[in-house]
Amino acid sequence: MSGTPSTVRTNSRLIRWIDTRLPLFSFAQDSVLDYPEPRNLSYWWNFGSLAGIMLLIMIGTGVFLAMQYTPNTDLAFDSVERLMRDVNYGWLLRYIHMNGASFFFIIVYIHIFRGVYFGSYKEPRELLWMLGVVILLLMMATAFFGYVLPWGQMSYWGATVITNLFTAIPVVGNPIHTWLLGGFSLGNPTLNRFFSLHYLLPFIIVGVVGLHLIALRQHGSNNPLGIAVKGPQDEIPFHPYYTLKDMFGLGVFLIIFAIFIFEMPNVLGDPANYIQANPLQTPSEIVPEWYLLPFYAILRSIPDKLIGVLAMFGAIFVLFLLPWLDTSRVRSSYFRPIYKWVFWLLVIDVFALGTVGAHRPEGAYIVIGRIATFYYFFHFIILLPLIGWFERPLPLPESISAAVTKKSVAVPAATERRAVS
Amino acid sequence: MKRLVTIAAVSGAVLMAAASGAWAQEEPPDAPHQNWSFAGVFGTFDRGALQRGFQVYNEVCSNCHSMKLLHYRDLGPDGPGGGIGFSVAEVAAIAAQKQVEDGPNDQGEMFRRPGKAQDAFVSPFPNEQAARAANGGAAPPDLSVMVKSRGKGLEYLWGEGGPDYVFGILNGFENPPAGVKVTEGKYYNTYFAGHQISMPPPLADNTVKFQDNTKAALPQEAHDVVTFLTWAAEPYMEERKETGAKTILFLLAMTGVLYGAKRKVWKNLH
Amino acid sequence: MTELAHGKPVAGAALSNGHGEASRRDFLTVASGAIAAIGVACVAWPLIDSMNPSADVLAAGAPVDIDLTHVQPGQQIVVLWRSSPIFIVNRTPDLLKTLQDPKDLALLSDPDSSVMQQPAYAQNWHRSIQPQFLVLVGICTHLGCIPGFMPQANSVAPGWLGGYFCPCHGSRYDLAGRVYSGVPAPYNLPVPPYRFTTKTMIRIGENPPDGGDFGLDSIVQI
């Protein structure tokens, strides 16, 4: 028989038979069990696998919810309430899905900030980073479509405001807006197509996540020190070290998730969405879900409609450029004495933008919003390149294993130690 | 460098603290926080309060407010969360008191018949326009999820929740303070946004006579009807909290075991 | 930039570190595995159970009251219960006589209704509570079509005494819903649970007070 023999370690003839023909098991063995990871990954590295698991939870609950939901403007709100009252465990599915969206974004935002802090976007991982930003965009679109489905007041009016953004585009804006809605205002055609897209996009996200993982595999994970792996002494197999660490992290996450689902499932949402959509009555405050607030704040900070839209999309586009905006020769902020503090300014700025987005654009919120928007772009476009050029990084350790074993006294007997080249 | 960061952090904190308080506009006071039997991790619905509250809704509120998302069978043992303690026969009797539109019959006409357990709660008006016309232009809203859609919603970690708000409204009808003119057809309410609500005070002392002979003071009536409305908005609340306790305990045990396993395996490395 | 070295350590190598360690490791592995399995089952159950009939669907299957005075002698009406067609026939004494004709009984597949397609109170020669009124679930036990009511003698074939003829694949039943031999359908038409609430009203979906606990899930084939 031609082809390489199966390398799977097993006593089972059945597994070997399958693997010779469709190398599922050896693929799993290489990618999950034996896969070498840097030995010094901290808990900040749990959030990638956590995001993947959240994606599966959202798809799982979503498929079963879709069996009960009716995407018709007269019936949608009632179908969701029927789910909450008459369908066995419907309330649980709905609350998991609703809070799962928020937690998915919390995890992904932490995952992104981890990447920013440790320079995971730098060469050779630029495409890995950009695929991640694509995933973020797809998540935002999916969440936007999903929030419209219950057809509450916030669903209707939030979607009205956001789809009206398209009218800012000169010349073709209005036809595009009408085409998107399938009408002149949000109605049945809109709801139906948003449902279809909401069902479709997560599977596209799965595909892009696949590409994201392939790109990751090419050069392996970054690590808190930001230095490359120099040899096998710097690495440990994914199983059992990181499988167990990821599962433990998952357990901790699930506890927090469960507290929200079971004790306070409506805290992250807006009470106004429990009022059925009324096209003739605008709520006193139109607010998107919290994970979109920073972008909403940027949009509103700029008095011009078109430039506001461009700024909002620009805030995400600037993330695509991050690998080239950051001129530092060193990855990890552990060794960047100036950037290590400036990073936190970005975090504070994003929180400030979120707070501004949650309030009506009046009084002090307008000023804070403009300052925060300015700082956001200033940080990426001006500060990052300048800091990278002028900063003097701390000396990097020789290798990962050198840094790790310097910290500990005992030397593991079973691990081979080679001289660092 | 540390100084720069300290300045930034302090100014950020000052800005956020200032932003959250001082720029609020003329808003009504938050309704005071009440003690609810269903509050907290181990909260349950007081069945007596639920049944009295249903009586208040049935005799008073249902004359103007619909509750379309509920069915009569929900009140009985087959209902979500086990209902509010009525038996199958009592539920059938309650439903039979109302007339429900059904049809078309074999002649093609709609007809009216006594309600059955599987019918939805009968609405006082056939559609929104009729509700508006009968109430001076303001349609009384449906009460099925009222408690979840007002105030800060159902959960109230840091401020007035929906139940507190509705209780506040029911108890908040007062004579307007000096100098405040109330529009014709509206009533002054302390906790309503803008203070002028279209609903006349629905409850007073002894508006209903409770079947279990509890004294029907206004706060008691309001407390019971809000308990009923909370159950109506979230009938599975007790099961949710119970399942939550079990799930979180299970997760704590599982995470503990996993932590032990993780430490055991990683010990070899360092 | 160094590519990942591939003299890679093998997964699980860290797990075998001596006998005492191994048994402690096995316990943790088994404990983790068991807890994970319980967790997966607890998560899977709500998802699967949500597909079971919801409370409103179960409620819509509530019993239906029918006024028998609307059924003329020799006629059939069809009503819906649990989304299934229910046949109610007012059998004249002539039609009833045909049910006990020994020549006809010899042609039936299950003349004594020994297969459980009906409640105990309908396990008789007329397959009903009162001989005059027949109540059947109108779903052919072959592949689910609705059989046509053919009470007229000789209408389906010469010697036809009256009964049901299913247009889909030609199954035939008599006026008690009993299936003839040699047709595709294997069983008699089912009888639903029902009882008389007054002399002229029946309630479909409820058993008589002494009629036991019969339900449509008890029968062999709908």
Strand order of the largest sheet of chain C: 1-9-8
Number of domains of chain C: 2
Report the average pLDDT across residues of chain C. 85
Instruction: Note the overall shape of chain B.
Output: globular
CA-to-CA gap between the ends of chain C?
Answer: 70 Å
Q: Order of SSEs of chain B, N→C? A: HHHEEHHHEEHH
What value does the Rg of chain C take, in angstroms?
29 Å
> Structural class of chain C, please?
alpha+beta
Say what oligomer this is: heterotrimer
CATH-assigned fold name of the largest domain in chain C: Rieske Iron-sulfur Protein
CATH class identity of the largest domain in chain C: Mainly Beta
Class of the domain at 28-70 and 120-245 in chain B, according to the CATH hierarchy? Mainly Alpha
* Major beta sheet summary of chain C: 3 strands, antiparallel
Q: Architecture of the largest domain in chain C, CATH level 2? A: 3-layer Sandwich
CATH topology of the domain at 28-70 and 120-245 in chain B: Cytochrome Bc1 Complex, Chain D, domain 2
Characterization of the model:
The complex is a heterotrimer of chains A (421), B (270) and C (222). Chain A has 421 residues and is mostly helical. Chain A is built from 16 helices and 2 strands. Helix content of chain A is 63%, strand content 1%. In chain A, helix 4 packs across helix 5 and helix 11 (293-301) crosses helix 14 (339-358). The longest helix of chain A is centred in the middle third of the chain and has 32 residues, at 188-219. In chain B, strand 1 (99-102) and strand 2 (111-114) form a beta hairpin. The longest helix of chain B has 30 residues, at 237-266. The two termini of chain B are 34 Å apart. Chain C has 222 residues and is of the alpha+beta class. In chain C, the strands form 3 sheets. In chain C, strands 1-9-8 form a 3-stranded antiparallel beta sheet, with no helix packed on it. In chain C, strand 2 and strand 3 (84-90) form a beta hairpin. The longest helix of chain C is centred in the first third of the chain and has 31 residues, at 19-49. The relative contact order of chain C is 0.14. Classes of the chains: A mainly alpha (421), B mainly alpha (270), C alpha+beta (222).
